[in-house]
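On to our target:
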Amino acid sequence: MVKRAALIRGDGVGPELADAVMRIHEAVGSKIEIIPVEAGYEWWLKHGGDSMIPKETWEILEQTNAVLKCPTTTPPEIKHLRSVAVSIRQRFDLYANIRPIKTIGGIRGRLGPVDLICVREATEGLYSGIDVRLTPDTAIAIRKISRRQSTRVARKAFEIARENGWKKVVVVTKRNILKETDGLFIEAIQEVAKNYPEISWEEYFIDNMAQQLIKNHERFNQTVILGTNLFMDIISEAAAALVASIGMVYSANMGDDYAMFEPAHGSAPKYKGMNKVNPTATILSYAWMIGYLGEKDKMNAIFRAVEEVVAEGRHVTYDLGGSASTMEMTEAIAKKIEIM
């Protein structure tokens, strides 16, 4: 049976990156059927409605095995519009956002080589959507933390550590202040950790974690960093600054029977149509997706090709010190794949 995956073309530079993905899909000879779909702010500006995801796209997502989401824009000033990513995570119960932060092709950030994985609970916390204006001068947001989701994401984090042969999980909280919500989160960690005796865990408060990640990032290499939704949204973004470019950072949102893959960066509307942005994060997100859907050899071929192109440095984009366009770098990667 042929596996099927949706491709959300997205906003800003998203469509250009979607075209890059289709070139890699052709080069690697994937048997997975890719179905391009629309979603995002630009679609909404043309069609309106109460969601940035059209009904037709939801129907296709329900019929596929996974989705690759190119970057989308979430306008803060339009209050009823929810993020495309958050909407999909909650609809499909994609409770674990997984973001490897790793030096690729030998190109180091300013602070040295990096190899860690951020794991973020992705369906609740301050992203639960319980955000209310009580009076014209007072608003509240509810930080929902459940034992079920905390346990599931903790288990995923410890499994990732075990799969990589790593011995440590760092848990990010603010438990000295958020004693009940982060207290419950830690209770779940403690229970899950009993099943992984070879893996230790350590708690960092979010403010100290932010400092230590920049000051002593090497202590977190070969470590899984785990936390609740907003804390790890911030920490994983900060961690992305440790590598050469956020254009290198790919991610997955995993549930029990569905997954969404996406680059870590945004839609970069100022670069729309310029064929300029680094395609690596989107290409590696695609590679991870086809590996998830059973094409592990093809996934590995793409990762090797990207490593080689980045290491050679001849056909890389401006953020990596080169002058290649999005499609020129994509074509260099595709040609490597085709001769492997």
About this structure: The mean pLDDT is 96.
